[in-house]
């Protein structure tokens, strides 16, 4: 298995970065996860758009042209024979003697890539996930896909310890922002799909964006607004979206059944439509 590290493909076991890489010392960097399905990258364009957005917000340069990034990603997937899974890309501000402010002499941004092979998406996801709620303890710019993920890690660990697959983060107003690594959605009793606006308070999920397009095409009723944890508890259906989970039904929140406790009908229709149009389609 290979990894890409600052200009070279190296064996995964030998892949290493400098100890004064600012990503390592300060979490001064960003990342992307692009899903691979049947050897193809899904929504590669929007993922690279978001990478550029995150880098711009932090004033880190794009390490190379988009064309070059795309070629490297494809080459790593080919070398590692990834069929299903994802490619992970990370860009940090680079190596410099430890000092919080940006280095005077701008270092070359550090670029690394790894791949992960995962089982082909299975029926398990379609049985529905359980989630627990947890306070959203993150900084005020989760729209930047920063490698600083401690609050997300702690929330996900809480979920795991509760036998759940995800944690839903709740802000100080009692509203659900998003999951620790997924976007959050509910379906109301009158069949309206509700999701929060992608402002600075959440990561603008690529799966979320693609699903919104699918919904528009298919004429689903949508409400873009925050929803409270209480509303989620009482919702008819709930689901999450992410690159590796696609559209996944949620059947329990904080131990309580959502709706009838089975994956929602509308949710499963959306999952099907997403898979047909985005995963098997042109890639959105
Ligand atoms: N929200 C957070 C905090 C995430 O880390 C992720 C990504 O994995 C998502 C949402 C879903 O985004 P995407 O659909 O681009 O995978």
Automatic annotation (TrEMBL):
InterPro entries: Aminotrans_IV, Aminotransferase-like, BCAT-like_C, BCAT-like_N, Class-IV_PLP-Dep_Aminotrnsfr
Essential cofactor(s): pyridoxal 5'-phosphate
Reactions the enzyme catalyzes: L-leucine + 2-oxoglutarate = 4-methyl-2-oxopentanoate + L-glutamate; L-valine + 2-oxoglutarate = 3-methyl-2-oxobutanoate + L-glutamate; L-isoleucine + 2-oxoglutarate = (S)-3-methyl-2-oxopentanoate + L-glutamate
Pathway: Amino-acid biosynthesis; L-valine biosynthesis; L-valine from pyruvate: step 4/4; Amino-acid biosynthesis; L-isoleucine biosynthesis; L-isoleucine from 2-oxobutanoate: step 4/4; Amino-acid biosynthesis; L-leucine biosynthesis; L-leucine from 3-methyl-2-oxobutanoate: step 4/4
Keywords: Amino-acid biosynthesis, Aminotransferase, Branched-chain amino acid biosynthesis, Pyridoxal phosphate, Transferase
A GO term, aspect molecular function: L-isoleucine-2-oxoglutarate transaminase activity
GO CC, alphabetical: cytosol
Enzyme type, top EC level: transferase
One Pfam match: Aminotran_4
Key word Magnesium present: no
Signal peptide positions (record): none
EC numbers, comma separated: 2.6.1.42
Example of a GO biological process term: amino acid biosynthetic process
CDD domains: D-AAT_like
Function: Acts on leucine, isoleucine and valine.
Family as reported in the entry's similarity comment: Belongs to the class-IV pyridoxal-phosphate-dependent aminotransferase family.
Annotated protein name in UniProt: Probable branched-chain-amino-acid aminotransferase
